[in-house]
Amino acid sequence: MNTATQVKPSEPVHTMERPADAPAAKAVESAGKPDQTKTPANPRRKKLLLGALALGVVAGLRWGSHWWLVGRFIESTDDAYLQADSMTVAPKVGGYVTEVLVRDNETVTLGQPLVRLDGRQYQAAYDEATATVVAREADVARAQAELSQHAATIAQARAELDSAKANAAYSAGQVKRYAPLVATGAETDERLAELRNTSTRADASLKSNEASLQSTERQTDTLSAALAQAKAQLAVAQASARKAELDLADTVVKSTLAGRVGDRAVRVGQFAQPGTRLLTVVPVQNVYLTANFKETQVGHMRPGQPVTIHVDALPGEPIHGVVDSVSPGTGSQFALLPAQNATGNFTKIVQRVPVRIRLDAPESLRAVLLPGLSVTADVDTHAVTQKTAATPTKVSLSAPLGSGVGPAMNMPSNASTAPANGVQRG
User: Residue 418: its pLDDT value, please?
Assistant: First the structure.
């Protein structure tokens, strides 16, 4: 019997994979398939990167050109302060303070009364001096009257002298006429003797009148000297009166300039000595800047160069100015005790030169610009450097004052010493 053999279809054989073979299988499977998680390159990001790179290049070129054209010629310092020519108010005469006419920080004008002193004793001195002037004027008038009267006396003496001369001449003539007659017997000797006696008396009277005239004329010098003395005494009295008047006027202390009152130390009732500081008037409308630059920065500074000023009290509001003048010496030269470098060990210290800068600030900012404020000053030496770049700066000691030059020297260009940021800060 044939036994039919039934063949079953083959079934997949399931094999148990080990856990260690799973990653390898996944790796093989993933190697044959494309990566679905990888995204294509973003063109927008490339454009941003290229734009940023272009902006950086443009900014670098702009900064470099600005440094080359402007920045390397800028000299800057923060050792700068606003200043004003303040005036200390002090009395010329002493006395007790009776009234203070201004308050702290008050604005005053030229000639405005500030303080009043007790002026009673000065008023009395002025009255006395005025009375003395009146008395001396009377002395002068009396001396002038005496001199005028003396002139009349001289005129009278001269008239009497002329009369005496006429009498003497007449008497002498009579003697001459009668002498021949007496010789002939026409007249008597007694008549001739009488005429001679009369002539002698006339001559004596003439001499007396001449002596009297000379004495009277000599008195003229005495009276003239007395008049001159009286006039001199009058001048002295008038000078004393003027001084007394000035002292009386000086009891009212007035402002010698326009500005604002500061540092008021005067009080009512205190005794003020002549020259004692009472208060200070600050001309805030005439504030200027004093910037202390290093000696390595002032080589190309000249009056008239533009200045940009940044005041700490006004952040974000630059103020323009102009170099007014450069000090004739460093700050140490004008110190109370100048440094002596000729003895002991020497350490070189960079000196600073004060530079005065005139402010071109608007009126709206003048009230804020007060003396003592700290500022930063940037001086543009570009124009002068351009003019003198071809020829070294050579100046002579014989140059006139005001020419803005100093001792003879060759100034190297400051472009080689400028820092990388284009600003040299002191």
Answer: 41
324 and 188 housed in the same domain: no
Contacts of 188 (CB under 8 A, 6+ apart): 182
Beta strands in 221-287 (DSSP E): 252-254, 259-262, 271-272, 279-282
**CA-closest candidate to residue 323, choices 366, 384, 259:** 384
Separation CA 160–CA 154 (nearest Å): 10
Residue 66: phi and psi, rounded to 5, are: -65, -40
Which domain does 113 fall in, by range? 91-118+251-275
Over the stretch 219-246, which tens digit does the pLDDT of each residue have? 888 888 899 999 999 999 999 999 999 9
In eight-state DSSP terms, residue 52 is H
Handedness of CA 352, 356, 357, 361 (dihedral sign): positive
d(CA 368, CA 379): 22
Tell me whether residue 55 is in a domain.
no
Distance CA 277, CA 91 (A): 8
Residues 114, 147: one domain? no
Count CB atoms within 10 A of the CB of residue 161.
20
